[in-house]
Structure to design on (330 residues):
């Protein structure tokens, strides 16, 4: 039996394409999480190299950087979902495939899935089909923040951020791969258009200043740094933040709490040097903003990069969670 939803099309396996296979049970998922990021970065580098070497070679370095960032995020989200929700009682691998077709990049991720998870995913797809994606995204951000869920993947935030922050189309195919054991697989497709042009609202605001002296507060990971210090008066995010779930983001919540202790009325968050924030990180940021909104005494300003389209969309959505939040793109 085969069921198709959304904007699904079959892979052509023509022109430029890359296929990778993964054995989800070969290493613990905690170790696999790091491998997901490395694999996503490799896929993004491959894609950028292909695009830069085509006949119509692009000399737009900012455009290529944005494509790399988009590809890395999308590949990482697909791999994280595939690893987490695959049926580990089978020997079937997880297969990732990427191809360039006409004016779009297609990302395919196929993994086995247990029936209960398949039904939950179909329910999510049905709600997505019957909702405005933008409103659905905000609703799910609110839901995960209010319910204090540890597992944001069940809310579909990764899929929704791909649609809303990267203007991509999604599709799914469910099929039975082994009739004797009724093993089911799902193939998730993300279709990212090339050379998208979109008018983005940009606002220029004046940064809040404080005179509070505080020692640097810092969280460091393998590929990122989050730091607050007295000279910048801001929490600065740098690199690629791909922590696993809200539990690992606890250290970031603690950093925000310490900053609020010394700046009770305002906080500035600088994302200009942030290359990637996974869906768990988006969930973390939305939870913090909703917490600040409830206090009613804290003003938040977020500074993003005008060269990173996904940040412009993200900040606009964060402002919807807290209408008095200010954001600026530089």
């Amino acid at each position: 039996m085969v069921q198709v939803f959304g904007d699904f099309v079959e892979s052509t396996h023509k022109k430029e394409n890359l296929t990778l296979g993964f054995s989800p049970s070969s290493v613990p998922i905690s170790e696999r999480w790091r491998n997901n990021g490395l694999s996503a970065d490799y896929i993004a580098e491959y894609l950028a190299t292909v695009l830069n070497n085509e006949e119509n070679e692009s000399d737009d370095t900012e455009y290529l950087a944005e494509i790399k960032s988009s590809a890395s995020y999308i590949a990482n989200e697909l791999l994280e979902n595939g690893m987490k929700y695959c049926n580990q009682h089978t020997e079937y691998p997880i297969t990732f495939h990427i191809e360039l077709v006409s004016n779009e990049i297609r990302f395919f991720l196929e993994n086995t899935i247990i029936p209960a998870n398949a039904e939950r995913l179909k329910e999510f797809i049905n709600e997505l089909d019957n909702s405005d994606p933008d409103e659905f995204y905000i609703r799910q951000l609110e839901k995960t923040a209010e319910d204090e869920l540890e597992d944001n993947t069940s809310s579909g935030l990764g899929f929704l951020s791909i649609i809303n922050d990267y203007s991509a189309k999604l599709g799914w195919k469910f099929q039975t791969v082994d009739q004797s054991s009724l093993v089911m697989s799902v193939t998730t497709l993300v279709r990212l258009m090339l050379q998208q042009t979109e008018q983005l609202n940009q606002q220029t605001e004046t940064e809040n200043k404080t005179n509070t002296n505080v020692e640097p507060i810092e969280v460091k990971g393998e590929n990122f740094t989050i730091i607050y210090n007295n000279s910048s008066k801001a929490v600065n995010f740098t690199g690629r933040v791909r922590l696993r779930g809200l539990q690992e983001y606890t250290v970031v919540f603690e950093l925000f709490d310490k900053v609020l202790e010394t700046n009770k009325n305002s906080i500035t968050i600088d994302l200009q040097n942030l290359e990637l924030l996974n869906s768990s990180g988006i969930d973390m940021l939305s939870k913090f903003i909703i917490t600040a909104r409830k206090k009613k005494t804290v003003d938040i300003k977020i500074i993003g990069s005008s060269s990173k389209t996904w940040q412009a969309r993200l900040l606009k959505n964060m402002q919807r969670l807290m209408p008095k939040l200010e954001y600026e793109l530089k």
Q: What stands out?
A: Residues 2-193 form a domain with the Heat Shock Protein 90 fold (CATH 3.30.565.10). The chain has a mean pLDDT of 85. The radius of gyration is 20 Å.
